[in-house]
Amino acid sequence: MGYGRYGNPVWTAFEDVVSELEGGRSLVFASGMAAVSAVTSLVDAGGVVVVPHIAYSGVHALLRQEQAAGRITVRRVDPFDDRAYAQAVDGADLVWLESPSNPLVDVLDLSRMVRSARDAGARTVVDATFATPLRLRPLDPSIAADVSLHSATKLMSGHSDVLLGVVSVTGDGLHERLDARRRYSGGVPGPMEAWLALRGLRTLHVRLDRAEATATELTARLRAHAHVSGVRYPGFGTMLALELPDAERADAVVAALRLWVATTSLGGTESTVERRRRWPEESPQVPEGLLRLSVGLEDVEDLWSDLLQALPH
Length: 313
Ligand SMILES: *Cc1c(COP(=O)(O)O)cnc(C)c1O
Prior knowledge:
Blueprint: H1 9-22, E1 25-29, H2 32-40, E2 47-52, H3 57-68, E3 72-77, H4 82-89, E4 94-98, H5 110-119, E5 123-127, E6 147-151, E7 165-169, H6 172-185, H7 191-201, H8 204-223, E8 229-232, E9 239-243, H9 247-256, E10 261-262, E11 272-275, E12 290-294, H10 300-310
Parallel strand pairs: 2-3, 2-4, 4-5, 5-6, 10-11
Antiparallel strand pairs: 1-7, 6-7, 8-9, 9-12, 11-12
The structure holds pyridoxal-5'-phosphate.
């Protein structure tokens, strides 16, 4: 390794675990967005990137910047419109997929979408942050994406105390290019961050099982609630969303919650809530009254009674 920017034993320890989980070769980055930038740098100047309307807002912001600089062309597409998707991937270099999506928690038909992108000659990346490698393995032959990506800041680290990203690939060529990008773009993770994430990974299965059971139960109760509509839950994982009629009423719920923490991060031990449209860079396709909920490790009854007192009744 020779020099700290090229690699260090703590990165390797973290990467070895993720490689095993993903069935590929992994590279750790200083944040989820550092991982995103490294992957978009695989697109040559003049290339075309396809991205769904709903994806992490930072990804949209980065692609807009790259497009404004004249480096790439971005095609935004409704991932549930098969015809529009097929047209968009035709002639594309990179297809960005995120499942479940942030913040609408939509689950994409990845096998089919990756296949049609590949048939069109495009590389595919799946941001599986909301699923974790325990619920979704994009490199598995049943999906066969080129790149799997996670913001390890979220569930993988799991304690809201570290920023980290990770990318996994199957091909040697891609691994080399991403490794070189990490080395020379220079924004590398510290060993302490990698160590914290590695420690978080050791409890991922336990945290995920517990928070997922709570999320499942809360979803069932919210769906039966008279004043809540549009409860979205992918059927697995710890993220859900619900819709209030407008921004004002959604903000009132957030303000009234006491146990749920009003903050933007997610995937930690504390349950958190956010109205995503409070951010100007959030996609206009996300409803103004949508609340995104990240379920943590608190007792389900405590979380439910807090929701009950905060929701309209
Ligand atoms: C948070 C997040 C990112 C960005 O990760 P950072 O670690 O904050 O840079 C990317 N994708 C998804 C789905 C996210 O939730």
